[in-house]
Amino acid sequence: MKLRTKTWLAVTAATGLALGGFSPALAAGNAGPTEHTDMGVTGDAVMDHLQKISDISTSHADEGFRALGTPGYEESVEYVEQTLEATGAFDVERQAFEVDNQTFGEVAVNVDGEDLEVTEASYTEGTEEPLTDLPVALPVDDDYSDLAGGQLGCAASDFDDSAEGALVLVARGTCSFGEKTQAATDAGAAAVILYNNDTSAPDEPLNATLGERIENGAPTVGVSYNVGNDLLTKIEAAAEGEPLLADFTLETEYTTSTTWNVIAETKAGDHDNVQMFGAHLDGVAEGPGANDNGSGSAALLASAEALAEQPTEADNAIRFGWWAAEEVGLVGSTHYVENLGEAELSKVKSYMNFDMIGSDNYIVGTLDSDGSDVPIPDGVNVPEGSAELEGIFTDYFADIDQPNVGTDFSGRSDYQAFIDNGIPASGLFSGADGTKTEQEAEWFGGTVGDKHDTNYHQPTDTIENVSKESVDIFAPAIGFAVHTLAYDLVDEPTDPPTDPTDPPTDPTDPPTDPTDPPTDDPTDDPTDDPTDDPSERSLNIDPTTIEVDDFVGKTGVQVAAAGCTADTTATMTVDPQNGKIEKFEQTATADADSVAKFGVRGLEKSAADDYIGAYDVTVDCEGGDPLTGSFDVVAEGDGPGAGDGGGDLPRTGNEALPLVISAGALILLGVIMTMGARRRKA
């Protein structure tokens, strides 16, 4: 079980956004949250989107539900696009590409008169006509009990002459399925059986993908460990010179389909520092795919909507991806990553994957990128930073006392292409064809010995069989991860400083004389009129002169208006005098001490010089006349004490203006407000 102390992932990024013009809606917000939150993402919000996706899938039941190349998939793409565009917060792109769509006819394998339970491999070639009386052969290996060595069939040299024209049996492990089929093809094999090496789930079928078509490749199927091991025993027991004989038929057809990934990126945030979240949108033709993977897709939609409603623009750009053609070999995500180009790829700093979050016999699983629960398989690349990404989830679950377990970080989902290209990754997973253990049942409930998703790739993968309890746990965790990677936290504002115009007290002054002794006469009768508001109205701006590098940092200029009526709304107006920055207005609520606190900072670090100049500040609040003040943003080295002058006054706004005024307006964001973290308790 993962229960850890809190250690946040530090995301380093310039916090800014350049826009082509002033947009009041996008300007609204504060200087950033002081604490991370789940953004209010709930299981109910996820289920609302899942119902829509499920309805689309079931309405196309006769056309393959939401599988590759179906009308149901295209309609699901349209729903995702419409939902995102309605927020106004994202640039949405439909990425089209072509993919081979494979359908199967008869698939039958009979060895020594016994029919085997087989599963066709994705991207396999078929048989032009049934193959009969094939000898059954093994790779060359001295010890078949270790599920290693030559029996893995990773190279043509793992076979001898017996493989020529034979059906060969190869164990899963070490190299990819495609490499095994290619090696057997190079050795002259007529067909291939791949068998599972998972002895803990001996009856689990092997759903293999070759990754891509292999020219003139040997037709390939997969079998469970038990089927493969029984066949291995029979082959080894066969008399020398009298091999087992097999009949092998695999009918398949390829068609080319156009399909689409949907990519959405926040308009706000640093677009050179992209944090990415993804889930595959396609399903299998056998069922509506509510859990696999309507659940993950719906969770991304709910999180995107919640992010769009935050009071603060994101510091780091958040990019969501809904992948096509995952079920036929991770094609959509692989296509996306391979077509980014080196410059764009370097901007993607992390990837989080959500493939199934509502399994009926669920576990709360994190992709175990630190290998603490499940050893990292051989050959799997784990980019630096992946363990810290997993820590976002484990720390979140630790805070709410939610047990969780690490799951295989094996690259068997859409994060594969990202880690292969050095992008750190993690994610969440509620389980598929794994078997629930007693310990898992103690932590999460459910039935020991059953699959984590008893409806996996079945017609019964309907919304009625999705675990709402599981979705309720996963939904806020995903929202929390989005918020964590979107925002750089700011320090909580302190109380306003004392009025800088007040003269300091000289510690060498002698103490004052005591007051005269009290008189016996009573004071005058009190008047009927109330006394003035005891809260003195003042406007404190700290600092009044700030170098531009500090102004585009996390803190900027702090503004505190004292003497405002408590619990009323104060409005700050910042009026730049340099002709480049638009006037900005923001509100805050005066606290119990009658103080309204704001913060002003520049957001576009790459255009820092455009902020140089004078800024007039006005705060209008109940309790008296508007309060006014100003501050100056100066070039680096022009602050107080800079240069030979030591205490020269800062440059004025007019002196700081460049000769050419940019036509593009930059947004000035302000108002530091404390945002409480909303944490769900499981």
Automatic annotation (TrEMBL):
Gene3D superfamilies: 3.50.30.30, Zn peptidases. Residues 490-544 are annotated as: Disordered. GO terms for biological process: proteolysis. Residues 1-27 form the signal peptide. Residues 518-533 have a biased composition (Acidic residues). Keywords: Membrane, Signal, Transmembrane, Transmembrane helix. The chain crosses the membrane at residues 656-677. GO terms for molecular function: metalloexopeptidase activity. Residues 495-517 have a biased composition (Pro residues). This is PA domain-containing protein.
